[in-house]
Amino acid sequence: MAVYYLFDDTKRKDANEECRNYWYCYITELLDRLGVTAQQLPDADRRFRKGDVLFTGPGALADADREHIARSKGLILIGLATQNADDLFGIRTGEIIPQPDGEFSINGFFRMRDGAYLPVDRNDYPLPVVSPVTVVKTNGARTLAYIDFDPGLTVFNGAYYFAFDLTQTLWTCSAGKPVYDGQNGFDIGRVCDTRIVPLDYDTEIAFCDRYLYIIQTIFARVGYPMIHRLPPMKDGAIPDLLLFFGGDDDATNGVMNLQASGIMHERGLPYHMNLMPDINGNFVTTPEEFEIIRSRGHELALHYDFVCRANRDRFIAAGFAEQLKLFADAFGVMPVSNVGHCLTQHGWAERCRYQADLGIMGDNSKLGEINPDDINAFGLYGFAFGTAFPFFAYDDWAHDNKRLNFTELVINYYEPRLPEDDPEALEKLRRCLDDAARHGRTINYFLHPHYITGLYGTNQQVMASLDETRSYCDSRNYKVLTCGPDSLCLWWHARSVSSVIGTPAGFTVYAAADIIIRIPGQGKRVTVNGVETECPVKHIDGLDWTMLRAVRGRSEVSVQ
Q1: 311 has a pLDDT exceeding 70
Q2: Sheet strand arrangement including 226-227
Q3: How far apart, in Å, are the Cα atoms of 248 and each of 329, 412, 473?
Q4: Model's pTM, two decimal places?
Q5: Range of 49's domain?
């Protein structure tokens, strides 16, 4: 069984020359997030085997491609607003409804009708559609979901049709829209201002992930193995969720940084601290304190600042380079993943491109929920950018829409707090952990060191949230993997270059780091390199999976 996607790069070049993004480039990220190894095809002129999967993108399918696909027996076809292929999908396509306010605007909402393809709680919650929408009438196909009142997803003899460009929706919702001016009383753009979903949208619904769950279910029905979104624990166990911890020092106090690291270390927790240069270009943490913090296994990176020490016109490549040099000169190392002071943003792909060009591998500025009335609000939990997981950034039309060697890591629980006698805060914290275990999520607890130490106010509610997290996970027998953003960022890069090639009965794993392979179903007999291996079963995203740990290197796996 193999996975393919049709991709004609001349269409991308034509769009870019017309100063347009070619959204279908994001098909590679869609597959990467799924943990699926796929091959690009310039056309369908090949013999597909039974069980192979083929994605076709927006625009008209060539007549020759349509004929080749029609002759294939047992091919699973997934079309994303594909035209000139109605006979393959059992539909009749009509007019294409443009987006009401440009390519970053919502053009309707997608609701599942068949819960078997999205077997999660509240599976009929409306998911935003950010692309043109094709009006579809069924002609033999069965409707699995609607966009407002018309079919949004259909199935016909193993051919699935999305009536919109899922790649554009995933890309724009995850990356956000361009922002140049401040909002909500702030005088510069912020990453959280780029969110596409409105403020009243329930951001506890990770809507981009839900779209992926639908495709994941299609793959699971034919037994296709996928790379899990979490790494194994150090002892080889399969975690239920991953918590990673970070915070910014805001150039406040070097002793405070040392104390915050000490408090987290005493609790046996990882921590990642972003250090900001002051207006003179100096850091409050000394090189000696830096090494003490690193000796505890904690991470340190740059808290780049375009608010206090530089105007917004320094949000350019040279501005990032200047601040990176300050960090490298002060501490003698390069950071892995950074955060912007006040989560600043100016433009669209620039923030990621500027850092990627400098060799930085990630950024942790994606705040998943906001309080428009309070820039320093606490206890903000949600997935306003649609996902709980890291994802790779892609560049704009002026830079070939190429994938950057750079991941965005989401802040999905900003400054968790647990006040006494606050059942709502307690319920939210526990709900976050339960949902994380249910979906095998990565969750970022973002905690500033001045709140961990109590330098600002008291740290009682902060410590209570950490203690409750541990005690609640213990009471639920959750296996929790903890790390810092750098560790997750580096592993996500390794995951992306790992692969699974073969069939559900036998496949080869090429792992750039220790990974987990999810094999759909239970009751499997798994042999790795000739040795029978016990594999636990996890219920994730509403499905049962046999979970196989694959160590770094090559492994030959057979499944019965």
Answers
A1: no
A2: 226-227, 515-520, 543-550, 537-540
A3: 19, 16, 26
A4: 0.97
A5: 3-173+213-222
